[in-house]
Design brief:
By secondary structure, the chain is of the alpha+beta class. It contains seven helices and 19 strands. The chain has two domains: 176 residues, Nucleotide cyclase, GGDEF domain (Alpha-Beta Plaits, 2-Layer Sandwich); 105 residues, Tumour Suppressor Smad4. The N and C termini lie far apart (63 Å).
């Protein structure tokens, strides 16, 4: 019997060979299986090239882990590009193999042959949301990458995943050359759209608007606002500008408090709420206006 090791921290990546069913229908079982096996071999080689570990293959899917988010992102990009550069030669009319990728990071239990835990389950849910040629990741992964890569990440949606009580922010890494234009285009804003939001904490001031649509708050260095206090999580909360409104999203275990003048404090935990007017955001515990943990906000109409 293989005994599990102590929980570790890793980026978990699932890569799924998309539309494999079509290949089996068009090529037949024997040839299609050869194409799938070749694809899985290339995915494994790319994983190891970028310092990742191949845990196992499951049908037309591969499960990998990485210690660094940058390595996982670069591997995911090369996985997609590799399929573009080397399409199956057995049948020119066959559907070209494409890959859908999903990843999440966090603690996991690892044995010699497998990995287990909530982090793995979430990553498995994320890859099911990904379309062919798409790289989807959760907020913790997005916040773990270096700034040079973070500029190609865009918000996709906030969803409740099966088996999870809270909502999760889903991000996409835009790797194709044509994707760069997506980041430059703005959709038409509603007539009642809010124009900006100013965050003030200690000597720091950050303005959110359509040009800077998101900011993260937490204890880890990769956050835009770093609040290294007791009860503050590594990736505690995030503010996003969506459809002309500002949304406060909590990802923590201790929750976030929202205080507006003349009203009772609102507590959210792994949920989100709209921001309007002005007030105080406090992470993990209720802060007073003059306390070090108070993050002041003001929404501009």
């Amino acid at each position: 019997m293989t005994m599990p090791q102590e929980p570790g921290y890793a980026i978990v990546l699932f890569a799924d060979i998309a539309r494999s069913t079509q290949m089996y229908e068009q090529l037949g079982d024997r040839l299609a299986q050869k194409v799938v096996d070749d694809c899985l071999t290339r995915l494994s080689e790319t994983t190891r090239k970028h310092r990742g570990d191949v845990i196992k293959t499951i049908g037309d899917e591969i499960l990998c882990t990485f210690k660094e988010a940058d390595d996982a992102i670069q591997a995911a990009v090369e996985m997609n590009r590799g399929f573009d550069q080397k399409q199956g030669k057995e049948n020119a009319d066959s559907p070209s193999p494409q890959v859908a990728i999903g990843m999440h990071c966090g603690p996991l239990i690892q044995t010699r042959r497998d990995v287990f835990g909530d982090t793995v389950n979430v990553a498995a849910r994320i890859v099911k949301l990904a379309k062919p040629r798409q790289i989807l990741l959760t907020e913790p992964v997005a916040q773990s990458v270096q700034p040079s890569l973070r500029g190609k990440i865009r918000y996709v949606d906030t969803q409740t995943l099966r088996g999870k009580s809270g909502r999760m922010s889903i991000q996409e890494y835009l790797w194709e050359p044509g994707d760069a234009t997506v980041l430059l285009k703005r959709s038409a804003l509603p007539k009642n759209a809010q124009s900006g939001l100013v965050l003030t904490w200690a000597e720091n001031t950050i303005r959110l608007d359509p040009d800077r649509p998101a900011v993260s708050l937490g204890r880890q260095d990769h956050n835009d606002l770093i609040l290294n206090y007791e009860r503050v999580s590594r990736f505690h909360a995030r503010i996003e500008y969506r459809r002309g409104k500002f949304h406060l999203i909590d990802h923590s275990s201790n929750g976030t408090y929202l205080q507006r003048p003349g009203t009772d404090a609102v507590f959210i935990k792994r949920d989100e709420t709209l921001l309007s007017g002005s007030g105080i955001i406090s992470l993990g515990r209720l802060a007073t206006p003059g306390s070090p943990g108070a993050v002041h906000f003001a929404v501009e109409a």
